[in-house]
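Hello,

Our lab assistant flagged a job as stuck in the queue for most of the afternoon. It eventually completed. Since we weren't sure the result was trustworthy after the delay, we are filing this so someone can double-check. Below is the sequence as submitted and the structure that was eventually returned. Let us know if re-running is recommended.
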Amino acid sequence: MDRFAKKIINLPKRLLVEEPLNLYSGIRGMFRESSKIAGLPPGSAVYTGVRKDTPFNIDLFTYRENHLEERINISIEEATNMPNDGNFHWLNIEGLNHVDNIKTICESLGIHPLNMEDILSVGQRPQIEDTGSYLFISTKMLQFDEKKNKTINEQVSFILFENLLITFQERKGDTFEAVRNRLRAGKGRIRKEGLDYLLYALVDTVVDHYFIVLEKFGDILEEIEERIMFLGQKRDFDLLYTLKRELIHIRRSVWPLREVISKLERDEIKLIRKQTRIFIRDVYEHTIQAIDSVETYRDFISSLGDLYQSVISNKLNQVMKTLTIFSVVFIPLTFIAGVYGINFENVPEFKWEYGYAYFWSLIIGFALVTLAVFKYKRWM
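-- returned structure --
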């Protein structure tokens, strides 16, 4: 066995056991959809997620080119009474499980009950709707938890008014920190442009994190490929099936987002300026690349499944080959032992002084000749 094979076999237990199991646990907890709203009237305010312990929090960024004010945990009254002072306002709301608070905010800001229902129904596919007075977008945000080795899925909804952008999140923790830092730094065009540019920047970070999650998939699949080549354990095959199911869910998040970004770029939406559509086109291209990556990894998983079957078949063939060699070697030896195990008295070799040595010489000679033939034929 070469050094590379030993390296793979001696991989840390964290990679061989703990990480796949942690990832599997994360997969089981992902993408859970609820049927709580089945049979209820349209526009019912019902939270369908599983996170019930998230505290309610509203953060506010108020900015213009030369000014930034950041406020944490503001009240609902402050959030629903944004002054029309020429500044841009970004409200980030966390804790969709607080349905009454979400309902109060939506009703105060004139958000349609059907859009409010979509905000609270976290199993919705990504979508976009231009109501004329505001723009509604929902997306799926994916993150990879490095500590727990889990993929985290969350629905994020955007409501864009002329001077107000609202983001609704299920929990604390998102992919928007880079955008917040850009706002704080005041560099680039993010403060100079309008809220449609901020919307673009936030959606762009969501799409960019798809690649981060998919890169983690790639790393895990490469480890599985190496283990299959040298170990061929069944748990890797089971993990492949689990990863394939998760990629199907990710595909369900990415594919509809392509339609959302396409409409955002091409449709005549008055809240999206022409100069911003150029940047949105770049997000669309990134979305296509993410879709291609998902399809590539799905094909890779299928090929790894075929590789596993081939490795198992090769192992079985090696076992059968070894057993066949032993069988063929012992067939003539069994015949010789049977001949000299008969109960007749007039067998010449029985009373020969060197009969025992002759017997073993015959046995060993036949075995060596058989092995020599196998070696000459390159059957072993």
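-- support follow-up --
The delay was a queue issue, not a problem with the job. The result is valid. The chain has ten helices and seven strands. The mean pLDDT is 83.
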